[in-house]
Amino acid sequence: MAFVCIECGRSFAAAGYCTEDGGRLSDNAFFPLAGQMLGSYRIARLLGQGGMGEVYLGVQPEIGSRVAIKLLTADAARAPSIVERFFAEARAVNVIRHEGIVSILDLARLPDGRPYIVMEYLDGAPLSKVFEEHRPVPLGALVQMLVWVLGALGAAHALGITHRDLKPDNIFVTSLGRLKLLDFGIAKLKPDQGGVSDATRTGALLGTPFYMSPEQARGMPVDHRSDLYSLGVILFEGLTGQRPFQADSLFELLRQQIEAPPQPPRTLRADVPAALETVVLRALEKDPAGRFQSAEEMANALQQLTPFLPRESFVTLTGRRSPHALIPNTPLFVTTGSAGYSATVTEPRTVAPEPAQVRGGMPWFVGVFAVLLTAFVVGGIGLAAFFAFGDRDTITIVNTPQRTASGASTDGDPSTKPSTGSGVLDLSRFDVTAYLPTATKLAREKMSDAELTNITVEAPRSDGLVNLGDEDASSTVVYSFRSASASASPAGACLVWVSMAENGPTVSVPPMGSCMMGTVRPPRCSIKQVLDRTGTSGAGTTLVYGSGGWSVVVEDQDMPKLVSDDC
Question: How far apart are the C-alpha atoms of 265 and 186, rounded to whole Å?
């Protein structure tokens, strides 16, 4: 009998603790693979097991790097179809190559023929556990997570790969709040990607019934919109604490998925905005044609409603016991507490991860931008708080009524004038759409390929202009841009904000943001045209322009007014 260190896999003759790293020594009688070498990795301990396989912690002895090793059982390895799907998972992940999908490093076999996959090792827990600890799930946090999952899912869909088994257990949340999609074992691949024939034929019931789309429940062929239905089920569950369809028998559950309408989430949770409920119900449409037609479309719909969610709900939920962590480098607020949601506001701090159960498994922090938008809607946080972090350039101006188009004084020190813009800018009669070319130039001085993603306008006047010259008017305008080249970099800083207030323009590069936000063309409709269509203006009115057109938010009204940009 050998005793194996659960941290490094070294073997010892007696029980105790590892002399190298202090890890506890465990009897390997029940898990004889512990301490053995699989390829370049030494097995340290069992991380988890199911009916068809086991997942082990592997450690590279020379450099100490950790991996998760997924091994089929002997019985499963004798079924050609299971082995084929096991290999299909590795092929699917290798084809997609997205940071939001667990990386697969190697594929090999034991001497007895059992195949195994070497995957990246992550610390955390599945989304199902996170849901259990955070009921009700903070709205902003849930939307953040779903948008990031949609980014990874969109990358798969773009290559013709459908996951077909999306559920909270297959979405992994790390100790830092990053998300990873797992288990592409029954993914639908195209033939040239090594697709499995019997996994795509009509009549094959594949997936998890609670999260199956109606077409899956019928055993019919599916496409990427089936994944969006499953994600709608997950969103419903995160909002309400229960799945939309429950039954005691498989037959009844599948019948509900095919025929029964879901209960509106607002009847189960009163603080769900109507706009968010609309997104959920559209994702759960029985007819695929009635759902969102792409992951990007669903993500954009979720992003458009972030201004309507409570700012304190934009926290980062992590796959560890301590429930809330501060969005890194965001000096606004952080919620803390034990299991469950707490709205306690404390001093900003970064929470160090704690040890947690690990299994083989994305950074994402759209909350920074969402908090920005939300704060403009609800008030209470000044521009100084927004731009107190990150790499920023403040354009100095002289406090006079008229300024150059980019914000410099017409009679101040010439050294304060920025290099872009011409003409005269009257901040008391600011034209949002007319200033966009100048805002774009300012953004491109920071990131040369910056493209527009959003415009937020607070307290526009009925004539469509904004009074930025009066600090009592509480008017602000924010242009958000994204750099495609920076989005491809792991550094995380991909957004540029150009904000307009009583002191003129401020250009800011936040340390991180949503690099999956879609870019948009300049708006065709003026602010006045949008206001005329909705009959709104003044204090308490906020306009957000994005890929879905215009959203008009009126204070104390739950439902936003949506206006197409078709002028």
Answer: 30
Annotate 261-276 with DSSP letters as a single string.
PPPPGGGT-TTS-HHH
- Rounded Cα distance between 121 and 62, Å, is 17
Name which of 201, 362, 225, 373 is nearest 287 in CA terms. Answer: 225
Mean pLDDT of 546-558: 73
Find out whether 161 and 184 touch, Cβ atoms under 8 Å.
yes
324-325 and 37-38: which strand pairing? unpaired
Average pLDDT, rounded, for the chain:
75
Q: Could you give the CA distance from residue 170 to residue 147 in angstroms, rounded to a whole number? A: 16
Taking 50 as the threshold, does the pLDDT of residue 396 lie above it?
Answer: no
Using 50, 70 and 90 to split pLDDT, how confident is the model at 336?
very low
Tokens of 105: 């490093």
Cα distances (Å, whole numbers) of residue 519 to 102, 460, 484: 27, 24, 9
Q: Contact, 367 vs 327, CB < 8 A? A: yes
Contact 241, 168 (CB under 8 A): no
The catalytic residue positions are 165
The DSSP result for 67-120, as a single string, is EEEEEE-HHHHT-HHHHHHHHHHHHHHHHH--TTB--EEEEEE-TTS-EEEEEE
293 contacts: CB under 8 Å, gap ≥ 6: 225
In angstroms, the CA 315 to CA 144 distance is 9
Retrieve residue 466's tokens: 């904004």
CA distances from residue 296 to 91, 142, 437, 516, 547 in whole angstroms, order as listed: 24, 17, 26, 9, 10
- Close Cβ partners of 119 (under 8 Å, ≥ 6 residues apart): 67, 68, 69, 70, 102, 103, 104, 105, 360, 361
407, 504 Cβ separation under 8 angstroms: yes
Give the start-end residues of each E strand in 396-466.
402-404, 424-426, 450-458
Integer Cα distance of 313 and 297 in angstroms: 23
Closest CA to 143 of 533, 514, 559: 514
Neighbours of 176 (CB within 10 A): 18
DSSP letter at 556 equals T
d(CA 236, CA 211): 11
Q: At what angle do helices 80-96 and 139-158 cross, to 10 degrees?
A: 100
**Cα–chain center distance at 301:** 13
Kindly report, residue by residue over 122-158, the tens digit of the pLDDT: 888 999 999 999 889 999 999 999 999 999 999 999 9
- What are the strands, taking DSSP E only, across 356-427? 358-360, 391-394, 402-404, 424-426
The identity of residue 428, as a single letter, is S
Burial class of residue 317 (count of CB atoms within 10 Å of its CB; 0-12, 13-18, 19+): buried
Among the residue ranges 180-184, 195-199, 461-465, the one predicted with the least confidence is: 195-199
Say if residue 348 is preceded by a cis peptide, omega within 30 of 0.
no
